[in-house]
TrEMBL record:
One of its GO terms (cellular component) is plasma membrane. It is found in: Cell membrane. One of its GO terms (molecular function) is G protein-coupled receptor activity. This is 2-oxoglutarate receptor 1. It comes from Triplophysa tibetana. InterPro entries: GPCR_Rhodpsn, GPCR_Rhodpsn_7TM. It is a multi-pass membrane protein.
């Protein structure tokens, strides 16, 4: 357990300083940007963009997942500043659950977007069918159910740690090492590595198709490439360090002979990777903009409400008959 290593006095407690100062600052920034950005995105989707296509339905659900995660962060900020959890064990489990539910839900939503875009670009004859609402609704229901099944067991693994009058809400990787070890590997393989393979496979075929297309220099093709790079960047920059450091963190707790310095160093790197995983909410905000010009038009319509633009662009309608270049922007 994590508290055993805290008894050691032969090394500098850099992980405790990182917990105290780095986590509240990062979670505070993510909370403010996540709340503002995703609330704005939801307002745009709900009031400005009609009718909804399957990709927009996925975007809306992604924004809802990010918003729920952002709403849970103020309690963590308070906990890391005061170093004392006062909300009870049930809320502790729920808050830790929210982080992982958002993490693996976001991974699956981004994977769905990659699959849908693959169908639009590589199999354009099926594009009109895959853009229908029912496919978006089905994909989102599947993501929520699978995410719940993946993360549900975690509710029984998260615990509180009481030392005197101080209560700690222990993070997932610092709980019972034997349970966390095998369960963490299952999450890493099926919750992250497998979706990453699907995303890479989808975008490799998209890149190949666009490179051979006569429209490869069009703005829509450039936007599709940028979107692919953005999603791959989220998987590598945000999600990969967290999954690597989580494995190393749990392994350091399982090893008996590891020095205190190494344990604290690994724990510090693990702490640094946790808000990094939460930064996927920042990338998702850019994703909404890259998804197509319609969102940008609706955004400026919202910003400049009361002006002539707002009077003339009340609702941005998406035509029912879409060309392939139009579909690339959805």
């Amino acid at each position: 357990m994590a508290h055993l290593e805290n008894n050691a006095t032969d090394c500098f407690p850099i992980d405790e300083f990182t917990n105290r100062y780095y986590l509240p600052a990062m979670y505070g920034i993510i909370c403010v940007v996540g709340l503002t950005g995703n609330l704005t995105a939801l307002v745009i989707y709900l009031t400005k963009l009609r009718p909804w296509k399957s990709s927009i339905i996925i975007m809306v659900n992604l924004a809802v997942a990010d918003l729920l995660y952002a709403l849970s962060l103020p309690m963590l900020v308070k906990f890391y500043i005061t170093k004392n959890w006062t909300l009870g064990e049930l809320m502790c489990r729920f808050i830790r659950f929210c982080f992982h539910f958002n993490l693996y839900g976001s991974i699956l939503f981004l994977t769905c977007l990659s699959i849908f875009r693959y169908i639009v670009v590589v199999h354009p004859l099926k594009a009109a069918q895959i853009s229908r609402k029912r496919w978006g609704v089905l994909a989102c229901l599947t993501v929520w159910i699978v995410s719940l099944l993946e993360i549900g067991p975690m509710l029984g693994m998260i615990t509180e740690l009481r030392t005197g009058n101080v209560t700690q809400c222990v993070d997932f990787a610092s709980n019972d090492t034997e349970e966390v070890w095998w369960y963490g590997w299952i999450l890493t393989v099926f919750g992250y590595a497998l979706p990453l393979v699907v995303v890479c496979w989808s975008y490799s075929h998209i890149a190949s198709t666009l490179s051979n297309s006569i429209s490869r220099h069009r703005r829509s093709s450039s936007r599709a490439r940028s979107l692919a790079i953005l999603i791959l960047a989220v998987f590598v920059v945000c999600f990969l360090p967290y999954h690597i450091m989580r494995v190393l963190r749990v392994n350091s707790l399982r090893r008996v002979g590891m020095s205190c310095t190494w344990k604290r160093s690994i724990n510090t790197a693990y702490i640094l990777s946790r808000p990094l995983a939460g930064l996927n909410t920042f990338f998702n905000l850019a994703l909404y903009t890259l998804a197509g010009d319609k969102f940008q038009q609706a955004f400026w319509s919202l910003v400049h409400r009361g002006t002539h633009m707002n009077r003339t662009i009340a609702v941005i309608h998406t035509p029912n008959n879409l060309s392939k270049s139009d579909l690339l922007r959805i």
